[in-house]
Amino acid sequence: MPPLEAWEKVFLGDADFMESTHGKVGCVICHGGDSSIADKELAHTGLLADPSDISCDTCHQDIDEKHDFSLHATLGGFQSVLEARGGNLEEGSPLATAFENHCQQCHTSCGQCHVSRPDETGGGLVSDHEFRPTPSMQYNCVACHGSRVGDEYLGNNEGIPADVHWTQATMTCAKCHSQELHGSSQSAATRYQNSNVVKCEDCHEEVWTNTEGNPQHEQHLSDLQCQVCHSVAYKNCYGCHVAFDEEGLPCRTSEPSQIDFEIGYNPLRSSERPYKYVVLRHVPTCLGTCDYYGANLLPDFNALPTWKYATPHNIQLNTPQNESCDACHGNIDLFLTEDDVRPEEREPNKDVIVTGNPYTPEE
Amino acid sequence: MKRPILAVAAAILVLFVIAAFGCTEGEPAVTPVEGEVVASSCVSCHSDKDLLKAVASPEPEEAVSEATTGEG
């Protein structure tokens, strides 16, 4: 997504916005500045480009209260796994400094979803100053969530088809992910703990209520996550390291990503997700991710698997593994086995690595 | 005795103002009268493409490390 020119970022091509509910509020009420002065610099004194933090809750308190707990606001998803791996994120600690320098910018505000492009992607108004109840898939959602979920959903991974929800129904992200993105008024350590999280059965209820004539569903609904049968190969990342380069600029390196499909044991097994088998995605983080900032900053790195519960966004009705019973049963290539896991990562992944002859009919 | 009466009257007045002009769902409370005047000069510049191009300060090019590799 090419960045906007400086003038484009603040250009109101359609002044009709001023007739809208938000437009009638007036620019300076939210943004500050002084509109009575013609001089550009003086008029912009004290101006807030993104006033989300102080303006939106004036009228949208109910959403704002939830948003304060959402992962988009708190980055709790990153913090919780770093802490679970023994990381110390207290202010001033080496890991907190690394987080501040390399991770903290991946945060969004009301305006950076509903009005402008996210700061992390250069910012700028998406559609004049229109407040879009549904964020732009292209300029907001995929702008940040592009390299894995976005590429999967849109079919940008070579040889891998796009998700049927996109190819057959042109469903944008918000069709499934709506209120979930505002959080649930409770702190969540991962997106799967959000009580508003979307589930396949929210739309495909009939799959659970009427399995007649579909032996695969009759047999497997309770022990296989939907994606085990209905997603295809997806991206896995490895070896992320953060540092500053010789010129003092923050930098990040990682190994080339790999397109794989790995079924493993469910690391989040619960009444909500009772499946025995799920698809697993490798996380970019490794033991030495933050070594630039100090040695052994994640002393309990092995406390969590590096192959995590995944929900690839490339759903298909027909997939290589659901072509026939034999396409999956006993097909060891589909499963995460010890050989697929780096020796140094076998210990933390011992509970998700499939052992024996996976999923034989008598199991 | 006057002070409590004044305080009650003031409270009623405040409640009335909040009820009349306070936030409701989808209806911002801020009165547009001032805003429209205020907004007009902002909009006159920000809807003039040529003017914006002429006065826009070139943004400092964000320095991106050449050492960065892989995907984010």
Descriptive notes:
- The complex is a heterodimer of chains A (363) and B (72).
- Chain A has helices spanning 6-9, 21-25, 27-31, 40-43, 52-55, 61-67, 71-74, 76-84, 94-102, 111-114, 137-144, 146-154, 164-167, 173-176, 205-209, 215-220, 226-230, 325-328; strands at 234-244, 250-260, 263-265, 277-282, 307-309.
- With 363 residues, chain A is of the alpha+beta class.
- Chain A is globular, with a radius of gyration of 23 Å.
- Chain B starts with a helix and ends in a 17-residue tail after the last helix.
Q: Helical residue percent of chain A?
A: 25-40%
Q: State the separation between the terminal residues of chain B, measured CA to CA.
A: 69 Å
Mean pLDDT of chain A, as a whole number?
93
Q: Write down the oligomeric state.
A: heterodimer
**Major beta sheet of chain B, specifics?**
none
What is the strand tally of chain B? 0
Descriptive tags:
heterodimer; A: 363 residues; two-stranded antiparallel sheet; 18 helices; globular; B: 72 residues; mainly alpha; 3 helices; 58% helix; 0% strand
Concise account of the structure shown:
The complex is a heterodimer of chains A (363) and B (72). Chain A has 363 residues and is of the alpha+beta class.
Helix-strand blueprint:
The complex is a heterodimer of chains A (about 375) and B (about 70).
Chain A: H1 6-9, H2 21-25, H3 27-31, H4 40-43, H5 52-55, H6 61-67, H7 71-74, H8 76-84, H9 94-102, H10 111-114, H11 137-144, H12 146-154, H13 164-167, H14 173-176, H15 205-209, H16 215-220, H17 226-230, E1 234-244, E2 250-260, E3 263-265, E4 277-282, E5 307-309, H18 325-328
Antiparallel strand pairs in A: 1-2, 3-4, 4-5
Helix pairs in contact in A: 11-12
Chain B: H1 2-21, H2 32-46, H3 49-55
